[in-house]
Write a structure and sequence with these properties.
There is one protein chain. With 298 residues, the chain is mainly beta. The chain folds into two domains: 5-184, no CATH class; 190-297, Jelly Rolls, CATH 2.60.120.40. The chain has strands at residues 5-13, 16-24, 35-44, 64-66, 78-81, 84-92, 97-101, 119-120, 122-129, 144-148, 152-162, 171-174, 183-184, 190-198, 209-210, 219-226, 233-239, 242-249, 259-260, 272-279, 290-297. Strands 3, 9, 11, 12 and 13 form a five-stranded antiparallel sheet that branches.
Length: 298
């Protein structure tokens, strides 16, 4: 059978994830490899934020999770808490408690505070074909297979190879150590809302933007051409009538804080996104800032 494979994943943009860098420590038993099987474990960001949270703090050695709401996770499923991935070994009390194996797929066991979100991960399996003698040829070094899976965050993956004799060992990898605690595929594109001229406190400072299809936001930030002087600009985005996020452009700055999109509710199809200017410098010898653009990257 083939030896343990090494592989990598790369967010390819526009809602894709790329399988690449497939290699082996030895080419023994790889000549007749005919297929590889990739399992991706992900959270669908169109379902954010997770309504399941940790009911009580746990230490790095605890194996029981008490939850605030029943989880959909079943025996053998994976769940993610912050950067750690865990395998469910038991379900109790209708899903309100889970027993787990810690530090799954090479992640690191850690303490977790009460109230942090618990993500029950969905699994999707993709099989990729290979011609005889592919591994060891020049083509294997540049191999990339693209999978369309928009608006998800991939927390872990498994891969194994199959030859004429059987299957290789399974290699499992976790991606929680990344800045987003996973690999976000997103969907691509951006939304820009602009207000020309000097700013003033105003509700609906620009015409509402209508969302055509549901999207998970990558990040949100604001920029002005002329910085405020004598105070900060405070902004608010609303999705329909619900406050979505707030931004602040500090005194003397042209760029606001950047809000990461993971954990925010999705921008829902047919919803209206509106911009409010909550505060600007208004005293004598101050400037309110001029020519505002709020950008939502998808």
């Amino acid at each position: 059978m083939p030896p343990l494979p090494i592989f990598g994943l790369n967010p390819g943009g526009q809602g894709t994830i790329e399988l690449l860098g497939i290699a082996f420590t030895t080419l023994t038993n790889t000549h007749t490899i005919s297929a590889g099987t990739l399992a991706l474990f992900y959270w669908n960001e169109l379902g954010s934020p997770s309504n399941v949270a940790l009911g009580g703090a746990i230490a790095a050695t605890d194996t029981t999770l008490t939850l605030t709401v029943a989880s959909s996770a079943q025996l053998g499923d994976l769940v993610q808490l912050e950067s750690e991935v865990m395998t469910v070994t038991g379900v109790q009390n209708g899903g309100l408690a889970l027993t787990v194996a810690r530090a799954s797929h090479g992640s690191t066991a850690a303490a977790h505070a009460a109230g942090i979100p618990v993500y029950a991960l969905t699994r999707v399996i993709t099989t990729v074909p290979f011609v005889k003698g592919f591994f060891g040829s020049p083509a294997s070094g540049s191999y990339v297979h693209s999978i369309f899976l928009p608006d998800v965050r991939i927390a872990a993956a498994e891969f194994y190879a199959t030859n004429a004799v059987g299957n290789s060992p399974v290699n499992g990898v976790a991606f929680g150590a990344t800045i987003d605690q996973g690999l976000r595929t997103l969907s691509g594109g951006q939304i820009s809302i602009q207000v020309d001229g000097y700013l003033a406190i105003e509700t609906d400072a620009a015409p509402p933007f209508v969302i055509e299809d549901s999207h998970a936001p990558r990040d949100i930030f604001a920029v002005v051409r002329e910085a405020p002087s004598g105070g900060a600009i405070q902004l608010q985005l609303r999705q329909n009538s619900t406050v979505y996020c707030t931004l602040t452009i500090a005194d003397g700055q042209t760029l606001s804080n950047v809000i990461g999109g993971f954990g925010l509710p999705p921008l829902a199809a047919n919803a209206q996104v509106s911009l409010d200017v909550l505060a600007v410098p208004g005293a004598a010898n101050t400037l309110p800032g001029r020519d505002l653009t709020v950008t939502i990257r998808l």
